[in-house]
Amino acid sequence: MFKEYGNYDAMGLAELVRNGEVSAKELLDAALNVANERNPQINALIHRFDERAYRQIEQGLPDGPFKGVPFVLKDLLACFAGEPLRMGSRGICVVPDYDSELVRRYKASGVNIFAKTNTPEFGLIITTEPKSFGPSHNPHKQGYSTGGSSGGSAAAVAAGIVPMAHGGDGGGSIRFPSSWCGVFGLKPSRGRNPLGPDNGEDWQGAVAEHVLTRSVRDSAGMLDCSSGVEVGAPYNIAPPKDSFLAATQRDTPPLRIALSRKPLVNTVVDAEVLAALDNTAQSLAKLGHHVEEVEPQINIEQFWRDFFVVVCAEVANMVAMYRRQFGAACVAKFEPATKNMAMLGRSFSAADLVSAKRGWHDVQLAMGRLLTDFDLMLSPTVSTPAEPHGVLPNTRTEELLMLASHRVNIGKLLFRGGLVEEMAGPILGKMAFTIMGNVTGLPGMSVPLHMSENGLPIGMQFTGRMGDEETLFNLAAQLERELGFSGKA
């Protein structure tokens, strides 16, 4: 058994394979050994195909930069031919006969895919506590949330099962669990990574996929492998000047960094999180960067409503699609919150959706203006450290209300009465700093820099200019090198 498995990031493991110091089979043996030991406690992996992974080694893994490195896929969006895709739902189980374009590129990088990770139903909530597979536990504290929707992937990396895992981000779903589990997570620019062949864009452009990692260079190296033009995609953004990996190896010039401490949703930011933010700003100044408190000019009341309208409209369309494909019995098994969001989406008009998208442009313009004068914006990733299980999902009473009303399109009435804000507020408040990146399409990352007194990680978020992941990777590598990352479970 390769006992030093947990001491290496993905690039380090791949280098050992290239040099003949360890085999891909030994790496898989080690990953499965850690999974057998730790997954029963954290419930990060919900479907494994060990024998297939061993066959993939026998058949010959592609000679990419991550050849032989064990890897897992979030069980949402990513189709892996021959393996079930359940999307955290009791009502869905499809077995695709093709790979998503992103999965095809992952495979070309040489990784050895052996499991799927836990996710909330359809990625619609920011805690991984689905009724289908049960909650994922934070590797730092049993009974605490991993965040979501890439919570299973974040937990798998934090627990040392894999050094790198696939994730997706529609409202913070890479950055959020990265913060709560203490790993590095970057959401790339809109259009940087492919979403096909099933989607050109998802959630009106809010969704982006990438990986959650132990090291900055792994994230950069995989983005070099996965990004690039895709046939049929609505975007084709400029590639990096050199490579994303090269950006992690360059000296970091003095940067102008805007510091934002005000959430974009009405919520209270935890005192420990604000203290971590101030500490980060001081560290950046010591490293030679200019940090200045500047808040983006965004109407926070309109901001969350516009996001909610778009997402609910997308959920309404998704539920209608699954009803057509699989019948009413499938939809009947969906969670109450999913049915309720679909009802809200059906209540809005096409004009409401267009109006919300115009609101997104206002946010894009505000951030574009701010980032004209600054290289990056610093904020907390999440307003609090991880919460115990049961805090974020809807209560049983709320679920009964949802089940009683989801067949009648009364969404606008619920909005006017304030019930939507009351019920969604606890979740939206946790997303108060991450949603902006999805609305604008700007790249952003959560960097694991702090720990709470309760032993839970606190991530700091940096948002960059459109298409400029290089500056993010460059700064993250400096922080990793100079300050070190917290959060190893």
UniProtKB/TrEMBL annotation:
<dbReference type="InterPro" id="IPR020556">
    <property type="entry name" value="Amidase_CS"/>
</dbReference>
<dbReference type="Pfam" id="PF01425">
    <property type="entry name" value="Amidase"/>
</dbReference>
<feature type="domain" description="Amidase">
    <location>
        <begin position="26"/>
        <end position="395"/>
    </location>
</feature>
<dbReference type="InterPro" id="IPR023631">
    <property type="entry name" value="Amidase_dom"/>
</dbReference>
<dbReference type="InterPro" id="IPR000120">
    <property type="entry name" value="Amidase"/>
</dbReference>
<comment type="similarity">
    <text>Belongs to the amidase family.</text>
</comment>
<dbReference type="InterPro" id="IPR036928">
    <property type="entry name" value="AS_sf"/>
</dbReference>
<feature type="region of interest" description="Disordered">
    <location>
        <begin position="130"/>
        <end position="149"/>
    </location>
</feature>
<protein>
    <submittedName>
        <fullName>Amidase</fullName>
    </submittedName>
</protein>
<feature type="domain" description="Amidase">
    <location>
        <begin position="432"/>
        <end position="472"/>
    </location>
</feature>
